[in-house]
Design brief:
The chain is elongated and about 120 Å long. The protein is mainly α. It has helices at 8-66, 73-87, 89-102, 112-117, 125-139; strands at residues 140-144, 151-155. Helix 1 (8-66) packs across helix 2 (73-87) and helix 2 (73-87) crosses helix 3.
Length: 168
Amino acid sequence: MQQVPAPAEEIDDSTEHKTQEIDVSITCQTYVNDMSMTKTENVNTEEDKEKDNNKIHEQVALLWSLYPRKKGKARATKLLPTLIKKHGVEQLRRCIDRLTEDVKDEQFYPHGSTFFQGRFMDYLDSNYLDSVADNLTSRWQYVTDPVTGEQTLVEINEKGEKNDSRSE
């Protein structure tokens, strides 16, 4: 049997095919190397996530221990990790402190779930300090005494009149 040489087109096709095989093997090796690097990165990331989760769990427990009314714990503990990431533990701690300062009677504290669903926002630094400043400026004004020219700080009631409750 005689071997007949293949036509030129078939030879070119086989050459391209071999080139494609080489490219595929290089791509596969690169992919395997990338996967091994990714696995190493994922291990570190998972360890970091576990540490972060433990830290957040401790912070949730701390905030719950500070909150005065222990109702609605399940819902509150689901909400707190998101709030901690968004506002920080210290900010939420100040919110709880402000609530306990504002509300004197414990029966009027909202349940923990209610507070952490949105009531805490009234006690955030930006909201709380603005409301305190508004309250101070609306209740107190400097009044100049026409005789002596001295300025004194006077409490003003809702009607805009001087409050005479202080004895002079």
